[in-house]
Amino acid sequence: MLRPSPRGKAMIRFLLLCALVVGAGSAVAGALPRPPRAVKASPAPTQSEESARETALALAAEESAPPRESARRRKKVYTLILAGLDETSGNTDTIVLGRIDAEARRMDFVSIPRDTYVNLAWPVRKINCVYTASKNAGESGIDGLRGAVCALCGFEPDCCAVLEIGTVKEAIDLMGGVFFDVPFDMDYEDAAQDLHIHIPAGYQRLNGEQCVQLCRYRKNYVNGDIDRIALQHDFLHAAAKQFISLGSIPELPAVVQLAARSLDSDLSAANIAFFLRSAIQCRAEDIRFYTLPNRPADAGGLSYTFVEKDEWLALLNEAVNPFDAEIREENLDLVYLDDGVFRSSSGVIRGADYLRK
Fold this sequence. Notes:
Elements (H helix, E strand, L loop, with lengths): L5 H19 L24 H12 L16 E9 L8 E8 L4 E7 L17 H7 L4 H13 L5 E6 L3 H7 L3 E5 L3 E5 L4 E5 L2 E5 L1 H9 L8 H22 L5 H10 L1 E3 L3 H11 L7 E5 L2 E6 L2 E6 L1 H12 L14 E4 L2 E4 L13
Parallel strand pairs: 1-4, 3-10
Antiparallel strand pairs: 1-2, 2-3, 4-9, 5-8, 6-7, 11-12, 13-14
Helix pairs in contact: 1-5, 1-7, 3-4, 5-6, 5-8
């Protein structure tokens, strides 16, 4: 039986922590088909040739666009959605779109702010509501979230996993905690959200409960959720370096079983094993974190963040696009601000009157 090397074990530990921090932080054009369940001979998520052609045509579509070859999926490049479910609110308050490039040995993750506006005719159009709202309507929460992210990025990510927050503390404790330099004193009480946070500033080992509190803390941030996401990214960078240098995972089987029980996902065990084997080849500096470019604005009496279209397209093609052709504006279905006017990349704003309130 092959066993992970110490460095590989550390990367597995980091990947598990990535998923767990997504949970802790919780407190359509060009659709790529869902990967079939993997079999032993082919554990990687795959797409059929027919489905790949449909996606390529969608990426190349628009009569006014200059002719170009159909887009092809880059070899050994996979995309996934990780989301953390806040049991108090029922929302997926932390959503990450990631790309794993097994060929280049690189991983990129883009955090999608929870208040990001989605082009749906719903009373509340924040992306963090989509998962639970879809389930409440008798539909698949995973499919609803996948569709909302697909509209933002122009392709359907290969895999999607939603993690509940309940098991996060125990899992991090099983992994031995995380050393992190807390940038300021964190003191916050909110009985309604069951938040009782008291973490002093400074370099220290954080246990599972403190890691959850660090990622859920929302007070004193000048830019609100955007600054909170930046702190989460700093935390993950520190964790990656720490675990790669330590080279060990205490209680790995227990952590894996704990995480598996809390996932709502279309990933098979073979898919997960494939991603972990790919991650073993990465270095800490080859794991990058970004935030979806956005700007705040009010609509329908609520505060939202709207995607900065041009900046997002540049980042999307640099860090997340799994194709050998550029993703364009016409492949997206998002609402954005243009000189104070709401516009849609697809030409259609669903429930447009909502934006005039």
